[in-house]
Amino acid sequence: EIYTSLFVGSVRMCIRDSAGVAVSGPTADMGHADWEWLMAVNMWGPIHGVEAFLPRMVEAGQGGHLLFTASFAGLVPNVGLGPYCVTKYGVVALAEVLHKELRPNGIGVSVLCPMRVATNIGTSERNRPEEFGGPDTTHPVPDQGEDNQDLAGRVLPVEDVAAEVVASVYTNRLYIVPHQESRGMIRRRFERIDAAFGEVS
Asked: Is residue 84 flagged as an active site residue?
């Protein structure tokens, strides 16, 4: 699904871009249309939101907040989700850059990076346009329910994640990571990066 929400209230103005479609399988098996579809939705959705709203927010000079939906797969590589990871890493990078750039304007930025949430992303192929191959060409993602023990992380209710998102916007938190069980995997990724400095000859 792709949607942009506008919240107006005591946080002044919050623009929320949420986009998420996925394909599953070895990256080598992905066709050009798979990459195009995920880039068009997962990456260009947030970019279009920035293009449409951010210049107006800056010009208005009244602060506000940008909220992006990325994924745990935007922080740690997930085997079998190559194109999805690439796009969600991009969304995290976009949020991180804007977080720094927009401080002087009083505009906050948050990026949501959950593991499994009770949404319909597991059936996102139903929305795949014919220009990107149509629903029948999709490499479907595994069942996202609790019964699938091959996937990491609990399946969180949408309401619980939404409550944490709202609290994070009010406190201007950049990273929203609702799954505590993702912490160890995120830490190990950065430990591997840090260890690379010791490998320089």
From this structure: yes
CA nearest neighbour of 19 among 82, 99, 78, 90: 90
- Catalytic annotation, pick one of 84, 89, 170, 175: 84
> DSSP character for 140?
P
Q: Determine the residue type at 199.
A: E
| Cα(12)–Cα(8) distance, integer angstroms | 5
Q: What is the pLDDT of residues 157-172, one digit of tens each?
A: 889 988 999 999 999 9
Of 87, 81, 82, 83, which is closest to residue 68 (Cα–Cα)? 87
Output 66 or 142, whichever has higher pLDDT: 66
Q: Say whether 35 sits in a helix, a strand or coil.
A: helix
The predicted-structure confidence for 84-116, as pLDDT tens digits, reads as follows 999 999 999 999 999 999 999 999 999 999 987
pTM for the whole structure: 0.85
Return d(Cα 51, Cα 36) in angstroms, integer.
20
